[in-house]
Design brief:
Blueprint (H helix, E strand, L loop, with lengths): L3 H12 L12 H8 L12 E3 L1 E2 L3 E2 L4 E5 L6 E6 L3 H18 L4 H17 L1 H11 L4 H21 L6 E4 L5 E9 L2 E5 L7 H13 L2 E5 L5 H17 L7 E4 L3 H9 L5 E5 L2 H13 L3 E5 L4 E5 L5 H13 L9 E7 L3 H15 L18 H16 L3 E4 L21 E4 L10 H7 L6 E7 L2 H9 L3 E2 L1 E5 L3 H8 L8 E4 L11 E2 L2 E2 L6 E2 L8 E9 L15
Parallel strand pairs: 1-5, 8-9, 8-11, 9-10, 11-12, 13-14, 13-19, 14-17, 16-17, 19-20
Antiparallel strand pairs: 2-3, 2-10, 4-5, 6-7, 7-24, 15-16, 18-22, 21-23
Length: about 550
């Protein structure tokens, strides 16, 4: 495999880029992170990085810029995949699949173990890269890489337990088997907010199942994808496995549209907005491909009068402010019982004022990093203006975040998290306030409503189009039973005395309704990455028909 230095030289010669003398070196802050992963540190004026990997590195499509959301600094330029390169990557993935499907599942598990060890060895460096390129704080960046490590552990064990079923037959001397086999090529279209972990959820299960996987990351986080692909490809190479088993095509609409439409892709796993997910699903299903969707989340926490506020207040704060409100599971709605609403809001507002201060996400101790992009900041500002225009009371979130920062951080996408109480708590109302309750705002905006009984709060929880995560804070077992039962939350994640955000890998992750109904990570999610066959085996000397049918000529 070519080193980054030699690839850089080849790219420079091919594209006639500037000489080393003219190259602008990145800030020491960014350089330290990139150099730890053997990534170039010449920024916008340096060589273009290849953004396609299918066993070899290439790229001739549109030029992407990786921009640090905390400073506005251009970290690198990446040459994305053209339509032809995406088509070629699919073809090479299919070739690789034909080889990899014959590798015994426990052997595939051992390869995953090696990937796990390689990722764990670089956990802190990769976590810093996530913070640098995506913008989440250091501990969350490292935690995201740990999530990839953890799902590798899970998939290693899973590789020996991807079992089928034996079904009793009504016919003598017959048995029925339900057999899982590798599916083919799985395309993973991931979002910017989890530039590492979501790919990990999909790659590990896909590899354990015997598939080839082709990753199209968000166009704004190509460096995370390149760094991960480097690590994975080295493990595959050491094991004489074709690199296209875990391929990469960076870019925006061109490779994404090609993967969704390609008959060579058996399944598309898409994480992103509801609007884009609807288009992806339509394209994939039109050719009868499989699709896994993880889309919007408009998640609510409900706090009952008997809740332990010492637990609930900081959990709601993390759910709303963590990752600057850019998790799919971020807490966006808070319903408080009338009897405890004043005390809860007093404590929560004080926490916002004391701890929700923006800072460098790479600095240990920072709790609030920037929004990822100008588009995200515009969405935040539009939501704040909409709340004010609809008569909401803004309890926290006024002031210019940039005024609190120094140096290059003044150019970042920092905002003050908003805590607001709309004029009406009813999300079903056909008013400006009602529409704001029903819309997902991918930013740190938390709306608060006051309820009088649990049935009212559950109805409000369920009244939005999305159905990803939900949380009930109570010590009443009767309330817990109602919340978890058929008349309770209709979300895919239904927590008790745990916030909406911060799922573990052991259970299947995903949501219902317009969130997409997909399931990733643990539980039975692996069953989506295989094709199932019902196999009736006759080991008798007769061939009777089922249901007693007689057909004798």
């Amino acid at each position: 495999m070519l080193s980054w230095v030699s690839r850089r030289a080849l790219t420079q010669n091919a594209r006639h880029t500037s000489s080393r003398v003219c190259a602008r070196v990145l800030s020491s802050r960014a350089s330290a992170v990139l150099s730890a992963l053997d990534l170039p540190t010449t920024g916008a004026s340096g060589a273009e990085l290849p953004g396609v990997y299918d066993g070899r590195w290439a790229g001739s499509g549109d030029l992407l810029e990786s921009v640090c959301p905390a400073t506005g600094e251009v970290l690198a330029r990446v040459r994305s995949a053209s339509q032809k390169e995406t088509q070629d990557a699919v073809a090479r993935a299919r070739e690789a699949y034909l080889h990899f499907r014959q590798v015994p599942a426990p052997r595939r598990g051992d390869i995953l173990r090696q990937i796990r060890e390689a990722l764990a060895a670089q956990r802190d460096a990769l976590g810093a890269l996530v913070s640098l390129e995506m913008g989440k704080i250091r501990t969350e960046g490292e935690g995201e890489v740990q999530e990839f490590v953890d799902i590798c552990d899970y998939a290693v064990g899973l590789s020996r337990m991807m079992n089928g079923n034996v079904v009793s037959s009504e016919r003598p001397g017959h048995t029925i088997l339900e057999v899982p086999n590798p599916l083919g090529v799985v395309a993973v279209l991931s979002a910017f907010n989890f530039p590492v972990a979501v790919y990990g959820w999909n790659l590990t299960l896909s590899l354990a199942a015997g598939n080839a996987t082709l990753w199209k990351p968000a166009p704004s986080t190509p460096l995370c994808a390149i760094a991960i692909t480097q690590i994975v490809s080295r493990v595959l190479e050491r094991n004489s496995i074709p690199g296209a088993v875990a391929g990469l095509v960076t870019g925006a609409q061109v490779p994404g549209a090609e993967l969704a439409a390609s008959p060579g892709v058996d399944m598309v796993s898409f994480t992103g907005s509801e609007n884009t997910g609807r288009k992806v699903a339509g394209t994939v299903q039109a050719r009868f491909g499989k699709v896994l969707l993880e889309l919007g989340g408009n998640n609510a926490s409900i706090v009952m009068p008997d809740a332990d506020l010492a637990l609930a207040v900081p959990a709601v704060f993390f759910g709303a402010v963590g990752t600057a409100g850019q998790r799919c599971t971020s807490t966006r709605r808070l319903y408080l019982h009338r009897s405890i609403a004043p005390l809860f809001l007093e404590r929560l507002t004080a926490l916002y004022q004391r701890a929700a201060r923006p800072g460098d996400p790479l600095a240990h101790g920072t709790l609030l990093g920037p929004l990822h992009s100008l588009q995200g900041r515009a969405g935040f500002e539009n939501a704040l203006a909409g709340l004010r225009g609809s008569g909401a009371e803004v309890l926290a979130g006024d002031g210019d975040a940039a005024a609190e920062l120094e140096g290059a951080l003044k150019h970042g996408h920092f905002v003050h998290p908003v805590l607001a109480q709309p004029a009406s708590p009813d999300p079903t109302a056909e008013t400006a306030a009602g529409r704001l309750w029903r819309a997902e705002v991918f930013a740190p905006v938390l709306q608060v409503g006051v309820f009088d009984d649990l049935e009212e709060a559950i109805a409000w929880n369920n009244a939005v189009p999305q159905g990803l995560s939900s949380s009930l804070w109570t010590r009443d077992v009767r309330a817990v039973g109602r919340w978890l039962g058929p008349a309770g939350s209709d979300a895919g994640i239904v927590n008790v005395n745990v916030g909406t955000s911060g799922a573990e890998i052991g259970a299947a992750f995903g949501g219902n309704k317009s969130t997409g109904w997909g399931r990733e990570s643990g539980g039975d999610a692996w069953r989506q990455y295989v094709r199932w066959s019902a196999c009736t085996v006759n080991f008798s000397d007769a061939a009777p028909l089922a249901q007693g049918v007689r057909f004798e000529a």
